[in-house]
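JOB MANIFEST
job_type = single_chain_structure
chain_count = 1
residues = 279
[input]
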Amino acid sequence: MNMKEKLESLGRNSIQLKIARKETYKLGATRFGGKPDVPPDFVWPTYEGESYDHVVKDRPLTFLAQFNCEELAQFDKEHLLPDHGLLSFFYETDTQCWGYDPKDKGCARVYWFEDLSALSAANFPADMEEDFKFPMVKIKMDSKYSYPSWQDFSEMFPDEKDYDAFDLVWNELTDETPENRSQLLGWPDVIQNSMFAECDLVTQGYYLGNGWVKIPKEVRQQAEETARDRWMLLFQLDTVELGDFELMFGDCGHIYFYITKEDLAARRFDRIWLILQCY
């Protein structure tokens, strides 16, 4: 196979997200920010971790976005997501965990509320600071084929060393370079390194903050060989801006919600793993 054939064979559908204009509230609608729509028994998620002032305390997660699954269905060409209900994403945006430490578990949460008729707008927790109550922003969706970044591609084809040839074909296939790279599904837009094995190892309890030197060789090898087939991107969020509001992850980074294909098929959204990468 030549470079183009290799890349084309790896194409996956993704749902491109344009998060731009101000939005008005509508129950159960797809949107970024505002108050989440939740069932009556919903308990707002918190994360117990060390804050910037080195105090370990429970902090409420920030509500990021919700997606009406019925609205997603027309763009979800591979029928991977639920076709009804509401998917909601939360993240602790104060300290912004990076996801290389098993202790980061719980810094991000995803919920699937199946019955829209049972939902209503939640009240923010009493101890939530104003900075973490985000404005409502409209999300426009479109179906788009996505292809792996060089970091993922070169792991699958280690003999390919010609980045310039890859870049040429990648740009030809993707047709454009979107300013904002927020999406559901598809291939992640990698900033630093491939994340599949990272998700696999950290969820097994390995701390990855000091390199991978302490991980048994066979464990690491197993992850590097199989994680790409097991894990997939669920949601990638880039910088969000609206008027005076800006949400940025690190230095112009992204956050990535990953899930195993098995857990997605079984709708076990409580088992996602979040990674932050930036420049």
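[summary]
The first strand starts at residue 12 and ends at 22.
Helices lie at 3-9, 69-73, 150-156, 163-174, 196-202, 217-230, 261-265.
exit_status = 0
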